[in-house]
Structures are given as C-alpha cells and as structure tokens.
Specification:
2 domains, alpha+beta, Jelly Rolls, disordered N terminus, three-stranded antiparallel beta sheet, six-stranded antiparallel beta sheet, 241 residues, Arc Repressor Mutant, subunit A, 9 strands, homodimer, DNA-binding
Chain lengths: 241, 241
DNA sequence: CATGGATTATGACTTATATCAAATTGTTTC
DNA sequence: GAAACAATTTGATATAAGTCATAATCCATG
C-alpha cells in the first residue's frame, strides 16, 4: 500500500519530466522516494466540458494530465476568446499562474480526463532538496516558453495552409510520443477551436481540410484524421512562400 | 571593494525580481549576501547590432539587461524571421534555452547595451538554498509564459490598429515602470521589426502610425513617439470589433 | 428513436492587409 | 560634407482570409 503510494507519486514526478524523455526514476534514492510522498498529488476526474480552473481563480497547484484532453484559452475584455493550447497525457498545466498567484486562462476538459493536482508550495519545497526535480521543473517551463515562440512565429508569419499543416504534424508527433499512431488520430476539438488556436475562422479550417484531402495529403472524416503524406505536409511548411 | 561587489551581485538578483516589484534585498541575510558572490555575474557590453547569442549556440547562462535594448527572434527554415520580443533594462533573456541546452532564438542589441551574464548552473545551485531566489526565478518564467499567451491572443485575434495600440501601451507601461516617461519615448526598433513582432508588414505599421496621428491619438516623428490620448488607445483595444 | 441544437461543408461576396512601386527623408561612411 | 545606403511614407492594386448564407450532417437528450 505504502509502496503503491510512492509509485503513484513517482508517476506524478514522471509527468514532470520532459515530453520526450522517458519517465524513469533515475536519480531518486530510497530516502528521496520517501520525500516524494510529500507531493501527495490528489487525483481528480474532470468531465467533458468542465473547467479545471478559470481565469482569476486563486493559484495553488499545477496539474499533470494522466489521461484525457484539455484546451486552455485566454479571453479578451470584449469577449473574444483565444485558444492558447491543447494538452494531453503527460502535459503540465497551470504554470502561467505562478507569477501572478491567480490563473490567467481557462482550462476546459475536451473529454473526460484524469488529472493529478500538485500543490505548488510543496513542489517548490521538495525541489529545494531534489535537484532533479528542480531541473525538470525548469526544463518544462523553459520548453513551454520556447514552444510559445514557435506558435508566435506561426501566428505572425504563416499562411492558413502552413498553420494547419504545422498543427496536424504537431498533434501527430505528440500522439506518437505517447505510443499512439502518428498517422491517424481522432481530433478532440471542434473546427472553431482549431481556428481559434491557429488564428483562423472555422470556415477556413474546414476549407483547408477539404483542400488537403483533395490533394491526397490527408483523409478527413469529421473528427477522424489520417495523414496520407506527412512529408508533403512537412514540405508545405518549409517552402511555401 | 568587497562591499561593492556584493552590491553588484545584489543588483543582479534584483533583476531577477519581477518587472513590477521593487528590487529591495528583502529576505537576504548577511550570509546569504555572501553566497550571492557565487553568482559572480560578469558584466558585458554588447554593441548595437551585435548578437548576445544565436540560435543553436550552447546554453550556459541567462542574461539580465542592465541597460540598453534588445530584440529576440526565431527564424524559420525558409528564412522568414519573426521577432518574439523586445527587451529592456531589468528583463531576463535566455530562459527559453534551459530546456534544450541550446539557444532557440537570436538576441541582437538594438542599441549598445550592458548585460550581466548569470551562469545558470550556479544560479540553480544557489537557488537550492535560497527560497526567495528560486521563487523569483519561477515567477519570471511563469510571467513570460503568461505574457506570451497575451501576444498569441494579439496575433491570433486582433486587427492591425489594435495590435499597434497594444504595442504602444505595453512599451509605455514598461518605460514608465522603469522611471521613464509613459507619454513619450524613443523607439529603438525599425517599422519592419515592429511589423515582424506584430505579424504585420512595415507598410501597415507606417500607415497605422499615420492614421493614429491624423486622429490625434499620437504624435510621430520618425522614432520619437508621443502618446497624446492613451485612453483612446486603450478604448481602441477593448472595443473595436 | 425522434427532435433540436451544434457542428461541418461549401458557395458567393467583401474586406483588411499584403504587394508593388516611387518619392522622401534619415543615417553612415569615406 | 557628399555619396551611398537604409528607413519611412504614401499610393495603386492584388489577394488571402473573413463574412454571410444555406444545406447537410452529427450527436445529445428526453
């Protein structure tokens, strides 16, 4: 029972590893495993459509996704909403709230999901005596910054086709890294949410999907996507003026 | 001399405080001040046009700007460049490189600038025994993530006029927070760089400046900007459909 | 399992911004 | 201080994506 508990905590810490790295308990000794108990991340189920947190709600924990799918979005005073990200198993959410002490975006489950709540003060405390944990936290935050810069490039410089190609390839790569097929997957978000993320209107997303299908790059059946020619998508990304 | 050295280190740590918080040595005792010596950030002068670091160069330190002005930009394989940020006194650069071990953007001085190099391994080490330092580092990274999400909203959802208004108001607020005038300032970047940052072409930036001037919102004389009606700019941001 | 609301696809048309071009002004540099 | 180059402004035109509208399809709930 105790063992099992420690193992659960380990999984939590594992999700604090980078996306691409394997989640092995390297660097943790028996006494450190003991300390991991302090993290005591409680598991929570968030049903489809429910909010994990909302803009303005007080920040106390970050969240590791054990399974399921989320979107995060910021909203402008005039009501406009912009989807800032889609998040899946192993991703950490809520890091953008550390600085202000309150959440600065909404997090909604796009399908019923299981998350692990990690109280941030305990994580901070523990990371003081666990260099590996601290390092992972820094890496995760740093990578989020770097990734956001990529998205800024996409939003600022790319055409609709390029954005959608980048989006599909990114999803494919992330599913693949989690052991799912890189070539076909189920979208969990609507065309409107994709559009919001990519800075496009839903009609443009729909039209571009159709165009890709006509050109034999992908097969679309509503939410089910099959990448028929991933290389062509990659070429589209690199070369298109 | 020794005293002076410690004071210098303090300033470095101070720049690790949040943008809006005052940089007082609260929370640091005498022995902690001693430890700050370990940070030994070496000062460097970067002349206008010079690179502080380039994409791909190995990551070993983060940089606190003591004075001057920088832009950071990511470049796409096909040569397209996107400016991801403008940075001034007190800002920290290079945090996006922690995760990958190599820099993921270029940092160029837009005017001759003085920076303080903070070796990241030493900072990590020191933050293990200085909770305040660790906290500040987390806050800075978190705020960068939150700010990037605001920019994503801007790039994804706003019209040219709103983008430029948001840009001018942000600059104004940051100059103001550093003790400079909020109402008038010198731009250190070209119209093209502003455009790259905002996802617009330089012609659109120029035209929008002219429009704002015609409407009495600002006065433009090449690089010198005067905000004549900041409230109108703010209104433009919130309401414009 | 039928009904109503949400989502998606597609067409016709509009518009904001990009593109191309030329003149003007500012800034290095020899 | 003049020549050469870089940056800015402004106009005319092109175009990618937005808007509006309609039909088809999906799917959630009583």
């Amino acid at each position: 029972m105790k063992e099992d508990n420690i193992l659960n905590q380990l999984k939590v810490v594992c999700s604090l590893c980078s996306l691409r790295e394997l989640c092995l308990p390297i660097g943790f000794g028996p006494q450190e495993l003991e300390q991991l108990d302090a993290l005591a991340g409680s598991k929570k189920l968030v049903k489809r459509g429910e909010y994990l947190y909302r803009t303005g709600s007080p920040f106390s924990a970050i969240y590791a996704i054990r399974g399921g799918f989320f979107k995060t979005s910021v909203l402008h005073e005039d009501g406009r909403e912009h989807v800032t990200g889609f998040h899946m198993m192993g991703d950490i959410m809520g890091l953008d709230a550390i600085g202000s002490g309150a959440h600065v975006c909404d997090a909604v489950a796009l399908e019923t999901s299981e998350i692990c709540e990690i109280p941030f003060d305990r994580l901070s405390e523990l990371s003081m005596c666990m260099p590996v944990l601290q390092q992972n936290l820094h890496r995760i935050m740093s990578r989020e910054i770097a990734f956001d810069h990529e998205i800024m490039l996409m939003l600022g410089k790319m055409r609709a086709e390029e954005r959608l190609a980048a989006f599909l390839l990114n999803l494919s790569q992330r599913f693949s890294a989690r052991g799912y097929s890189a070539a076909s997957f189920q979208l969990r978000m609507t065309r409107e949410e994709i559009g919001s993320y990519l800075g496009l209107k839903l009609e443009t997303v729909s039209r571009t999907f159709s165009k890709f299908q006509d050109e034999g790059l992908i097969a679309v059946q509503k939410k089910f996507i099959e990448l028929k020619d991933a290389n062509a998508l990659k070429r589209l990304l690199g070369s298109l003026a």
